[in-house]
Amino acid sequence: MIRISSQQIFSGGINRLQELNSSLNNTQQQISTGKRVNKPSDDPVAAARILKLDQELARVETYQRNVDLADNRLNQEESALESSVDIIQRVRELTVQAGNGSLAPNDRRSIASELKERLGQLANVANTRDASGEYIFSGFQGSVQAFQQDATGSWQYQGDEGQRVLEIDDGVTVPISDHGKGIFVNVPAAVTGSVPSSPTSGSISGVRVVNEAALNAAYSGGFPDDITLQVDNSVPPNVLAFDSSGAPLPVDPPQYQSGETFVVAGVEASITDAVPGAGDVYTLNINEKQSVFGTIENLIAGLESIDKTNSLGNAEFDDLIANSLINLDNAQESIILKQTELGGRMNAVESTKTFLEDSSVYTNEIRSELQDVDYAEAISNLSFQSFVLQAAQQSFAQVSQLSLFDRL
């Protein structure tokens, strides 16, 4: 015979009421939070998966912020480069206008005045800052102004050659900056001629590449380098040409005639008023680099100073205009190539952005299935649990009043 004490009856009834009340509270919490799993004990397996999904979402959100930063930086750089191309195009138009032989000195000075304004505009674009105030073309030295004027008024690059890279997904990085030296300074320059530092006679002019394949072939696959020229004292005198290693190069035609053009390694030039056998060395500057700022500055100086009242001044001016146009075209091409490169980066950023968005949506859907409460089911459970708790409370109230004295 099993004996049940009053204490056991009370204890069992209270425990049952607490269990029902706890279940009711859990259901109420699910409805108020909208979550089926509010603590690991609600569903240990689901809670573990939800934790991993939360970590995945945190990772995706971090990369999405990086993607937004990369997108903003690349768009800003692309906009700056587009403005640079427009400015250089206007400078080119002014250069063509300045080459008009009928212009008076005052007209050339007026063109030079506008070129100064365009030069200042280009410097402002090259010194563009991002939202945090850093100069976007200064490499790693974002706090340093990319281009500054030196004591002579020339614009000089002040940054370094660093390139910032940002990770936009696991193992996926994208450059988000380009240094100004590679864009605005290291621009291929027109082939030019230079006279001796202390010439006894002569000048060189009309230098231009007429056969690039022949120029490259003259260096056996290496990079073209400077070519030196001399006029010997043979009868008739000849033009002698040598590459940077001292090896002779053929000249066509070989005979020297003052002011007459000749071709060496695909480069055309002419030497005027040279004294045969004087030992003067003339240089064809090959594969040089020219800052776009330097090109415009030289053009301005030439327009303001070159005297066209004699044939030497005319030849110098013509060379200035021709070389400036080549340098400006090279600068535009350099920037356009960088824009093309930027376009590839922006496409990569955009595709990564789309992938991350899809990943976020998919992960959220899985987490929602595991975590979100079914309101219809939860409300139905709440009603049932409330009814059961109420019935249990009423039953316990009646049982708790029973006594053995009621049987006497």
TrEMBL record:
InterPro entries: Flagell_FlgL (IPR013384), Flagellin (IPR001492), Flagellin_C (IPR046358), Flagellin_N (IPR001029). One of its GO terms (molecular function) is structural molecule activity. It is found in: Bacterial flagellum; Secreted. Its main location: other. The keyword Cell wall biogenesis/degradation does not apply. GO terms for biological process: bacterial-type flagellum-dependent cell motility. Residues 328-403 form the Flagellin C-terminal domain. Belongs to the bacterial flagellin family. NCBIfam families: flagell_flgL. This is Flagellar hook-associated protein 3.
